[in-house]
Amino acid sequence: MAEFEDWEDVSRVVADVYFPHELTVMSGAERPELHLSSVDFGPVMIGRLAWGVDVAIECEYPGAYEINIPLAGTLESRGEGGEVVSGPGQATVFSADTPNRITRWDATCSVLGVKFDRDHLEREADRILGAPLRSRLVLPDQIDLTGSAGDWRRLVASLSDQLSEGAGSLANPLVSQQLAGAVTTAFVLAVAPPSEDAAPAARPGMVRRVLDALHDDPSRPWTAADMAEIAGTSVRRMQETFADYVGSSPSATLLDIRLDRAHAELAAGGSGVTVTDVAFRWGFSSPARFAAAFKKRYGMTPSQALRDS
């Protein structure tokens, strides 16, 4: 926890990470006790925030959507849709460019927050759902995280848990782009129903197009939306079709392709080749995860493959 001289300084620090806002300290300690950590994936930002006192906040959320997930305590807000009270197991949604007031963020409330760039989320939602282009994404004011959105919440929590360990491999551009895509796709599939207007694709041809693209450029920071766009359909339909015709998911197929390329590079050896470089080059978020997947596939560690080259 950083030390701050006054609440104006605290508000400025939070605004730099999230949004410009008007902060009102309702009760509690005179000296600020802010707890703040965050990781920036470009169009997606994940952070943890606790004020340590009761506060109220007015904000218009310029240019981005904000999803606030209380880990403890309660978050009370009022916007165009009325009053929303969220606690653990729920999330409050603040829509982009929409005035809203958090009427009470209580002193015990610690929030896991996800900030989506507006253009990114709306564009990716169109691609993920295979829907016609639209000017604005319509989201609920509150999300039940005990249902289908629970998987998304667990993904976000897993990434935020790494904040205490430092950004590390999360800062790798290839990894961060893919994580932004994964967080976005999981969120859209959890909260937005697929469009009935999504155009069907010729399924075997759709699979071939995606497979060809993955083989041609496996080092690209692929997202599910990227693949669905090439397929010409929604993410969900593409996943179902891959299960029918390939027997695995698109992401598992991409993993196999990348492991093959990484194995070939390690087997070729050469001066200057390291396991860490190979892991990041083929899109793994850490050498440890790469090593685990590699050993499961080939029965040896990447280091052993490199030594045997």
What does this structure look like?
This protein has 309 residues and is α+β, with helices and mostly antiparallel strands. Helices cover 42% and strands 21% of the residues. It has helices spanning 7-17, 118-129, 150-161, 173-191, 203-216, 224-231, 235-245, 250-268, 275-281, 287-298, 302-307, and strands at 22-27, 35-40, 44-50, 54-59, 64-72, 75-79, 82-86, 90-94, 100-105, 110-117, 142-144. The strands form two sheets. A six-stranded antiparallel sheet has the order 2-3-10-5-8-11. Helix 3 (150-161) runs antiparallel to helix 4 and helix 5 (203-216) packs across helix 7. The longest helix has 19 residues, at 173-191. The protein is globular, with a radius of gyration of 22 Å.
List the helices and strands and how they pair.
Layout: H1 7-17, E1 22-27, E2 35-40, E3 44-50, E4 54-59, E5 64-72, E6 75-79, E7 82-86, E8 90-94, E9 100-105, E10 110-117, H2 118-129, E11 142-144, H3 150-161, H4 173-191, H5 203-216, H6 224-231, H7 235-245, H8 250-268, H9 275-281, H10 287-298, H11 302-307
Antiparallel strand pairs: 1-4, 2-3, 3-10, 4-9, 5-8, 5-10, 6-7, 6-9, 8-11
Helix pairs in contact: 2-4, 2-6, 3-4, 5-6, 5-7, 5-8
